[in-house]
Structures are given as structure tokens and as C-alpha cells.
Design goal:
The complex is a heterotrimer of chains A (198), B (925) and C (435). Chain A has helices at residues 7-33, 51-57, 62-65, 80-87, 98-106, 126-131, 136-140, 157-165, 187-190. Chain A has 198 residues and is an all-alpha fold. The longest helix of chain A is centred in the first third of the chain and has 27 residues, at 7-33. The N and C termini of chain A lie far apart (70 Å). Chain B is built from 27 helices and 39 strands. In chain B, the strands form 12 sheets. A 7-stranded mixed sheet of chain B has the order 5-4-16-15-14-6-7, sandwiched between helices. Chain B has a 6-stranded mixed β-barrel with strand order 20-25-22-24-23-26. A 4-stranded parallel sheet of chain B has the order 11-10-9-12. The longest helix of chain B has 23 residues, at 12-34. In chain C, α1 (2-16) runs antiparallel to α15, α4 (97-118) packs across α8 (243-269) and α4 (97-118) packs antiparallel against α14 (395-418). Chain C is an all-alpha fold and 435 residues long. Classes of the chains: A mainly alpha (198), B alpha/beta (925), C mainly alpha (435). Chains in contact: A-B, A-C, B-C.
Amino acid sequence: MSQIFGRHFDLLFRLTLVAVIALVFGAVVLWRISIAPAVGAPVEQPVPFSHKHHVGDVGLDCRYCHATVDKAAYAGMPSSETCMNCHSQLFTDAPMLTPVRDSVRDGKPLHWNRVYRLPDFVFFDHSVHVANGVDCVNCHGNVATMPLTWQAPSLEMRWCLDCHRHPQIATRVAWNSPPAKPTLRDAAQLSECSTCHR
Amino acid sequence: MSPLKPSPPLDSSALEARRDFLKLFALSLGAGNLFGCVRAPDDPIVPSVADDTIEDLPTLYATALTRNGYANGVLVKTRYGHSVKVEGNPQHPASLGGTDVFAQAAIFGLWDAQRSKTVRRRGKPSNWMEFFDDLHARLRASRNGAGVRFLSEPSTSPTLQRLRREVAKKFPAAEWHTYSSLVRDNVYKGTQLAFGKPLEPRYDFSRASLVVALDADFLTALPGSVRYARDFAARREPAGSNTPTRLYSIECAPSPTSILADHRLALRPHELQAFANALLAELDGHTTIDTPYQRWARAIARDLQAHRGAGIAICGDHQPPAIHYVTHAINARLGNLGAAVSFAEPTHDGIDQLGSLRDLCNAIRGDFVESLIVLGGNPVYTAPADLDFAALLDRVPWSAHLAEYDDETSLHCGWHAPLAHELETWGDARAFDGTATIMQPTIAPLHDGRSIIELLAEISELPRGGHDLVQDTWRETMAAPFETSWHHALRDGIISETVSSVVSPALIAQNIEMPSASDEDKLDILFRPDASISDGAHASNAWLQELPKPFTLLTWSNAAMLSPATAKRLGIVDEDIVQIDVAGTRIDAPAITQSGLAENCVVLPLGYGRTRAGDVGSGRGFNAGVLRTSDEFWNSRASIRKTGKVRPLARTQRHSMAGSDAPIRVDDFPRSDATSNEPARANLFAPRDRSGDYAWGMAINLNACMGCNVCTIACQSENNIPTVGADQIRRGRAMHWMRVDHYVEESAQARLHSQPVPCMHCEQAPCEVVCPVGATVHDSQGLNVQVYNRCIGTRFCANNCPYKVRRFNFLQFTNESTRDFANPDVTIRNRGVMEKCTYCVQRIETARIETDKQGRTLRDGDVLTACQAACPTSAIAFGNLNDPDSAVSKAKRDPRNYALLAELNTNPRTTYLAKLRIVNRELDE
Amino acid sequence: MSAENAIASRVATIAQTTRWRRPGRMATMIAAVLVAFFVIAVTKLLIEGPGIWGIDRPVEWGFAIANYVWWIGMGMAGTFISAALLLLRQEWRASINRFAEAMTVFAVSVSGFFPILHLGRPWFFYWVAPYPNKMALWPQWRSALTWDFFAISAYLIVSILYWYLGMLPDLATLRDAARTRRSQIFYGLLALGWRGAHSQWQAHTTTARLLAGIAVPLVFSVHTMVALDFSQGIVAGWHSSLFGPFFVGGALFSGFAMTLVLAIVLRRAFELERLITDGDLDRLAKLLLAVCLFVTYCYAVDVFMPFYGGDRHEIDTTLARFAGPYAWIYWLTLICNVAIPQLLWSPRIRRNRIALFFIGLGVVIGMWLERFMLIVTSLYRSYLPAAEGRYWPTLWDWLLLLGSVGVFVAIFLLFVRLLPVLSVFELRKRQEHGA
């Protein structure tokens, strides 16, 4: 029987084999190191709350609404009453605020959609970051420019480690020795597992 | 959590708000945990309506948990409105910071999904309104209460006793009975004999340099045990000139107390009586009675004489009044009365409980009982068999049962109503010394439960909330201004100046006849509350069910316990099913041998063989109660035979015989020979760098450990450790991070040892080098950290751990049912990852963050591990080794300090202090 | 010339016979059932977790690891036989090297399942591989398990290359002998355009020697690596410098035994007496005996060392092996791996196919028992008396073991069915020399 494959085909075939293998390997690596999709995507909310307006235009302090950010691990979310502090005077009948008014009337809390998600094996504490001179903007981006809030950083472990391994890039506290205060942990300590995982 | 001070109380409205809030929060909290180690939670954020600062920091509420009516002061930690952890209340005289296992397990009890949730009439769902209507109709129908009976468990609650009087005012003809299967009648009968009236004995172990315990487990079983344990352990440490307390334990069955005994003598019940008499005779100087234990009696008598006024003779609750009398007599002879032993009027309303129950039964038989209201307890299960309480209950025309669980008794009552948990309601209770505590709710009732006092208020038609009822009780007695002292009482967890005053009665001479020697062909049966689930009240508490019982390390069941020699004589081996025959009543029970038990004795733990205790409690073990009669309530006689059948038992330790390789070090005191410290060993490893601020370490004092398991269950509660069930335990898959090993030195006195084993946090940790992904590593504080989310489960670390302290999640052990009371500071581990003791790293980090914000470094005592905080005897010292003045540094400098398996050069951060034996050379074999 | 065609057609017919005879069909059916076991066992495992196995505390490793070491051990022999013997210019290897290599590749592939299935969270197995990731983390280089990952993959790759390279000329032969279009395309692609040109032959020989040169040291490194998975631990009974050579010896032992068994089966099944001669079996048997003596020596040293070293725990472990609850496994191991193979001293036995078959099988089983024994008897008793435990396998352990055998057999049958089981071109050479 006559041969069915010519020389050129052989070459082509071998090249294809190599290419396929390379492609598969590349794809896997790419998939593993690719960035989270959530970043930069505005999140819909029951009330279209605009940080741009409240922070950028009105100039509210973050702590007015996020009351426990410098006290506790949890930054705190404003109660409906807090919204009403102003909105009982301003935009009193704006349709977009109906959910807030209903919440206060019926005593049913609002359900805000999460913008920042951490897995439950990560123990992040707002207060200690604030206490050590890490500005909100470092992690949350400039909310003053966000009509609807979106996730600014990737929140990947390597992103956390960037600062934990080089604290000086993210804090106003002088992190190089001698430490500004006795309790300051050096980069080595900050990047230990037990700092965030328990 | 010493940095935190107890918070001011909540008013009821705040509680309501919190409950509504936490219902929502429970979901979000759980959802994250459920998929722990897998993905981030995707649930909404739910702020409160009115409150801006959802308390994220732990809040402590000072309250009390009662055990057999007596209060143990506790602080309950709540997170996001969930009650998640019980700590001892350092200001409470019965606690001083320690707790018992039942207090720790209360969290599980509170959140137990199997608790009764609705009022039921003849098993059909109903509601409180209908119940109250029927109740009131019933009561009005009775001629001012004639034929109406109440049956409650004994209580020390002033409010309850006040409301009893209210009810009596309204229904003078109604009668009240008190019964629980943990009756202490013998104690009061004993004082009756000795002093002519029932009195409450109270002991001060800090003033005792010698203790003679006659089958008395004063370290875990008495009302004041948690406190007693603290004082006793403190006194046992050689400090300066004072010689440690010597403890003689003459007992029928071993108990945690036996572990700390310097000399043990195991006797059968009738022999114990003889011994007591012999001891008294020796003290009186005439040694007429001749007993085989003359040598012991004489030696102990001589020792007692040498410690006049500084000794304690104490007798167990289960022993007959005669022995109680003898111990009182001994104390009187030695001038211990008013010193280390004192008496007060009982604060307890159950003085003659068996009599009270008998009266009730007779009344029912005589058809004098129209209506019976059972307030708590489970008499159908716990009442002595000869009374046949179930049948009698069926004869009562109208009956109601207020209880946490829809149990055996509820089945025989017309009405069942859910009783609220102690952590859900207002109340009050007195401690062993009379100190009163206001019990405040830490959470609004999860189910539709009411408290006993609320029900009594309803009956006496002064409908008020629990809060007001308790205030009414105390308004007069508390120092003015009332609001302030009330507030302080809630904050501190005690009401000042409520200690009941001491009476000093004179001893009445009695002559105690010798007990009749037993017929040798029969065995002595000892009915004892189970070490883990007591009389069955805790049967549906999975934490307690899975808690390995001391010595036998048995879980999820009870067993007939015999001494090895007796078992050998009868040809019985572990797990054999034996038939026990008491006067014609027979039960089958799996047998288990226990060293240190008196010959020809069989211990039958109560509390098992429940039929209506939910999935967790029902159908486990056997019900020893069916052999129990009101005349032979604690002891009995039986014949026993093998049935040839076997039942596998779930035990967490295979064998406890310790030969030369016992990891327990015991030093004699005073040192017979100058046994020096561990020899210095050659080590090729570079020592771990301790230059950081903190170098955490732990020292466990075996001279204070009595193997009571509180550390184990406190750790379980703090670290979200799942229960795995009997089958998995049998497979050797128990998850407790802190396990308590038990060892027996076979000798005439069968020395018993217990050894808590947490992670050693080795400086040269064998587990770390073998993990391919670096999921277990050292941090600069010297912690051997386990990173669950990095672990892929090769299990090499567990193989390579010489101490076997690593726990692997072989299956999905955690489930939704436990998420409500999970500690939000600790990751919930899923299938396939390794876990282990972390030295409570979450507590360390929390404390570091708090102090960091204050700009100061941690001080000794800022961080307490869960086990350390809960330990009644303060056996566990934990702290910073870089601080030379820390308690743990001091302990490590003690020549008794030694490392487990030091020959492996792992340099463990957890070390042990050798146990001491305060030897009496006369009795040393 | 005639001989040459005879061989070619003989081998070709094995590869291309349109229908199997009954034994073939039987074997296929059994293999299919066992493969089904494997699938079920793995599915159950992935759904419920390793708790379905008998592993517990303190015996946290069980069948999975025993199976892994066993399979990869058998994987050693093939490459060793063909490579080492090639370098030593042993012509007789021609009759067995091909299926021995195939056996290697398949055994190593099967063994590769186990370290992954063994994990608590198998879906994260790739974390032991160093690659840039979101966690900014690397594997832990001090752990033997990390290096094991490289050892296995390196070995798998080299042995596949070596095996495939060797097959090229024969694939070409089959292509040329192919009767149907389908088979022509099939073999055509596999042959990668082999034309038997002089240049190709030259490249082929050089590469073969080169790969052989790499493969032989790999055989030793890989199994020493596997041994380190144990001896790195401080577990009494594992922590011994003997383990490297001990495991390599054991690996070759089981490998040769398996080769012997397969050789006898193939020879019987396809009347290859002329190609796989009694002389070949005899040589193989001698090789087996030699390794057996080495392994025996290792057992002896393994017992001697604890007493010589005087470590309390090591001594206890050894005594427990003799008389503990798992003693029977220890003695059974010695019977299979030490006692019975001594029969091979007698030439009569060495030329008795039946005897050889069962001796070989005995060794294969014995070696599995040895791995099981080393794991369980070292783990069940710990340094602390209180921490002692027991181990007993569950149904799922057995299903997975049988299943893995099924997978191996199935692949091997496919190989026999589709590819040249014997190295045609080398047999030719050999016969030319013989002639």
C-alpha cells in the first residue's frame, strides 16, 4: 500500500503536537494568575447611594456613616436612622429614598449588596489598619469619584502582601527602624500567616 | 478575657431588638462559615435600623449557671448578639474564674436545636394562652388549692422561694414537693444526727494542711467544688516554709479527687463505714475495733492529731448519714469546726427530697392529687424504680410539665410547656456559701420558653416579667439607692453582703453501730451520676456526650465498671455484655475495667438509656436507674454474669497502663532523693530566635491537674471544634484539640495520673519540615501555626507529630447546626484539612490589636487561653517567656519543670511541672 | 530475511489480530469490572472524603500510600532492564524490554493517582508545584513530598519518551504492514514519519543511549525520593538512612517479578516461545534472585540497627513487628519476599514456567505487604502510650486497590492489542547475531 503522509505533513504534525502542549500549559498558568473580575465593576444597591455625592460634593467624613471603623474589626454600616438624620430635612420625598423611609417606618433593615468580599478564613481588622496610619483610600480607592461603589483592589493575597511586606508604601507611620511606636510589627511579622489567618 | 470588663445589663427592649437583629445576622454569619475555606460569602450586609455600632467586640454578661440548685458565677461572651462562650466570673466566690464542664457546655445546651419549642397538650401543638386558661380554670376549680401539687427541682433562688410563698398565700391547700436524682439528703441527715438540725457544711481548703476524704469527690462533685479545687490546688504548691496539703482518699470508686490523692485506699461501702469508725476510735485513743486497715487508720489518726485545727475530714454526699456523723465527730475532736470546716443554715429547699417524693407518690396512690405541676426535671426517668412514678403520673387527672426538653416526663403529662434556658431569662440563685447572683439573660428566648418564676407569677396572678419579679425580690434587701446597687449586682455578678452567716453548733454524742458485713457472693453496686452527663439532664448535649470520661476515656455511653481483679475473677473483659441482677430486676450492660476501684464493686453510671432525649441522647448506654430503689438509692447488692455477647465501646484512649515509659513525672515531697532536673542534651539544631516581643509558652502543673476535662470542653467551645459521634470515635477520629491522657501505675494503691496534652508548639517542630505546601509554619511569637486554607491534607504532619496532637477532618464534621454559636474569630474547618491547638491565637491577636491601638505591649494576663481561663485549679500557666516575671517564666524556672519526650529534641514550648506526692512514710509501700 | 519477516508478521498479528481468543476476552471483561470498581471508589472518595477509608489517628496513612509506593516500585524495573541492559549491551533484553518499558509507563501512571487521591483536598494538589500564583506563595522545599512531585513527573516523562522512542521503528513496520486505511492512518501518525533512513537510525541510536543514560540514575533517584517520604519523618520504624537503597532494591525486586509474570503470560498467550526463550526467563529469574538477596540483607539491617542504636522507641517498634497485632503481616512479607524466592537457586525451578509464575506473583504481593507493613506497624504505636491506635481497612480501601490493578491491566491489554509488544528491530538484530 502506498504511503499516505508526505514529509511536509510529518513536519506539520510534529509542530502541531508541540503547539498544543504549549497552549494547554500556557492556558492553565494564565488562568491561575489572572485578576479577579469583580474589580472596577459598580455594584447595584437597593438605594443608589453615591459616595461621589456624599464624600466628593458634601464632604462627609467616612466615620460619620462607618462609625466603628477606628474601633472594631467591622467598619460599621449606617443605620437607616443615620440616613434620616439628614434626609428627614433634605430630599424628604425623593423617590430614590423610599426604601430608607420604609425601613425606618417598618423597622425593617436595609439589605446592602457587598462590594468587598473576604473569605471567612481571612481576619481583617479595620481599626488596627486605621490606627497605624493606613488611609481608607489605600484599599477602597477614591470613593469620592464613585457614583456607585466598586471594588478597587483585587483583594488577592498577593495584594495584601504587597503592603504587609513593604508597610512603608501604605502608611503614614514611619515604618523604618527605629519604629514609631513599640507595638509596630516589622514586615517579617506582618507577613506571617497568623497575622490574618486563625 | 481579662482585658474585658463585664458590661452593664440590657433592658428587655434592647434584648428584643437584638434578637430580631441577630435572626438576620445568624444567616449572614453562618453562610460565610458554611463554605469556609472554599469561597467568600456572597450574602447582603444587614445594618440595624436604629443602632449604628453593631457591637463587633465581645461583650461579657455576668450571670450564673446553677448546678443542682447552686449558683456558679459565670461571664457569658456574646458576639454579634450570639452567646458563644462561657467564662468563669473571677469575682464570684464559687468560681474565682474557673468553671466546671457543665458551665462550658451550657452554650451547646442554649443553642441545642432539639430543645422543646412549643407548648403541647397531649402531644398536640398548642400555645401559652390555652395552657394558662386551662391552668387557671383548674386552679380556680380547686378549693383554694386542695389537691394541687407542685414538684420542682431543688433551688436556692430567693425569687422562686418568694413566689412559692405567694402561691401558698393564694392556694394555701396546695402542696409543694422537691426532688432531683442528685439528692443530698444524707448530708442533712448527717448534720441532723450530729447537731440536731440540717445544716450546710462549708469547707475552706486554703486553711487545710491535711484532708481525709471518705469517698468524697470534693474537687468536682460538691456545690462549691470549683472554688474548693482552686483553694486546694493553691495550698498544694510548696511555697516557702508551708508544706503542701496532704490528701488521703479512702474511697469506693475513683474520682478526679483520687488523682490528686497522696494515699488512696479503695474500700467497699460497708468497709468504709468500718474504717471511719476505726479512725474515730483511734482518735479517741482506744483501738478496740480490729480491721484490716488498722495500719491506715492509725497512721492517718496520728497525722490528723499532728494537724489539729488545720485538717478537714470530709464525707461524700452518697455515703450514709452514719459516716457523715463520724466525719463531723472527727472534725469536732480535732477542733476543725469553725476553722477549715464551718456550717450554715441551708439555703437550699430540698432537705429531704426522697421523703418529699415519697409523700407525693403516696398522695397520688391515695388519689388525693387532682392536679400536678412539674417544674423542670425529669422525674419519670430519674425517680427510684420502686415508686413507679410513670404509672402514678398517669393516674393524676391533670398534669403539666415545664421543661427544656419534651422528655419522658412530658410524655406522661397532659401539658408540656417549654422552659426557657438559664441564659435566656431573669432569675437569681445562691452559691454554696449563700452569695446571691442576679441571673440576667444574655439573649432573648430563642424559642417560646418561659422561666419557672414567670409561670409561678402567672399562677399567683401577679403577671410580671422575670426582670420585675427579680427586682421585687431584692428591692427591700439591697442597699439604697436600689438602682445603683442593682446595676452593680448585674455588672459584678454578685450581690454584696449575701454570704450566709456561719453557725457553730455543738456535737451531739451518738454511738454508731458497726455495719453488717456483706454476703460475699454478691457484688456491691454503686449508682453514681455520670461524669459527663450527670443524671441524664445533659443527655442531648453532644459536647458532653463526646467528652471522654475520666479513667475509662469512654464516650457516648455508660458501662458497668469493675476493678481489673474482680473482672478477672469473673472472667469478664472490656466490652463484654454482663447481666446485672438486683433482687430479680435484670439489665444488660457492657463491662469496662477501671483500676483503683474497690474489689467486688460495680459502678453503674446514671443518665443513660434515655428514650426521649432526641437523636443525640436517646438509646445510648443502659438505664441503671431501673435497679435503683428509694431505700437503696446510692448503693445496692447484685449478682452479675456474662451473657457472652459483646458491645463495642467508643473510647479515646486504648490503654492507660503506664510502665517505665510513663510520660508522667512524680516527685516525692519531701524529696527522698535529690532528683535533679532533666539533663542537658546535645542538640545540633540552632535554638529558635526569641528576639521578638513575645515568645509564647505554656506550663501545665500536673500537681494541680485532676483530669476533670474542663480544658477540653472550653477549648471545644472556643475553637469551634466539631463532635464526630461514637462511630468516628471508635475509629480514633476524636477532634478535641486538648486531650487529657490518663495513666495508672499498678501498685497497691493504684496511683492515678492525668495529663492534658495540647499542641506542644515545638521550637523544632517535626510537623513543619514535612508539609509540602508550608501550611504549618512557625511565626515570630514562637507559635506553630496551622493555616487551614493552605492545607491540602497530606497528613504527613500528623504522622510526624510525636505527641499526636494534630486532628484531621477525615469527613465533613462541621455542619449548619453549630454555626449559631460558632466563635466568629476562628475559622470553621471543612473536610480534608488538618487542625490543632493554636494557643488560642485568635485571643492573642485580638489582645495585640487592642493594646496596639493603646500603644502598649501586652502584659502578663492580658491573654488567657480558653483552657487556662476555665481550669478550676489554675493548673495551666500561659504567657510570654521573654517576660522573666510572667507566671509561665517562673514556672519554667521551677526544678519540677520537664518536657514531654525531651529526648527527641523538639524543644516544646508546652512543658509540665512534675506531680508531687506528699508522702506519709508510714503508709509508703 | 525470512526470519525477519516471520518476526515482523508475528508481532504484527498480535497487534492486529481482528478477534481475540477466549482468554483475551475473559481478561478484558475482568479488567472492565475492576476499572468500574476504580471509578466508583474514586467518585465516592471525592464526594465524602478520605474518611471512607480505614485511616485514623495515629495511622493517618494507609492503602493509598502503600499502593502508590507499590506501583511506582514496579515502574522502576522496566526502564532499568532496558536501559541498564542496553548500556551493558545485553542482547537478550530485546525479548522483554518493550513490554517491560510499557509496564513501567503504565505502572507509574497508575501510581500517580494515589498521591493525589490520598490528599484531604485533592483539587489543590497543584499547590505542591511551583508556579506564580495569587497567594504569592511557593512550595515548602524542605519537604520530601515536594521533591516527590518532581521525581514522579520527571520519571514519568523520561520513561514515556524512552518507551515511545524505542517503538518508533516498529510502529513504522506496523504502518507498512497495515492492511486497512484506519490502521494505516493510526500507525502512520504514531510513527511520526519514520522511514528507516540511515540518518534517522543514527539519531535514534544516539538518543536511545542518551535517554538510557538519564533513565538509569533516575530509577535510583526517584525511588530514593519515595523512600525519603518516610525516612524524613521522625517516626520510629521510618527514620533510617537504610530506606533509600532498601526501597530501590524493593522496587527492582517487585519490578522484575512483575516482568517475569507478564513475560510468562504473554509467551503463553501468543506462542512466543521462539522469541521469549526459556534462557531469557532463566536470566530474569537469576536477576530476581540477586535482588532478593539484597532485599533480604536490607530486612536484616532494618532489624539490626535499632538494637545497635539502642533507641528505646525504635526497639519497641521492631519488637512489635515481630509479635504485635500486625506481626502476621511482617512474617507473611518475609515468606513471600525472602523464603520462597530461595527456590530460584535450583535450575529446575528456573526453567519451570508455572513455578516461576507463582514465585513472581508471590513477590509482587509480598512487596505490597511490605509497604503496608512499613506504614502501619510504624504508625499504630506512637511515642506516647496513650496515643496508640489501630488500623483496619474498609471496603473502599480494597475497591481502590483492585480498581488500580484493573486500570493497569486494561491499559496493558490495549497496548498488547494495538502496539508492538516486542521490539521487532532489536529481535532482528539479535537473530542476525545469533545466525
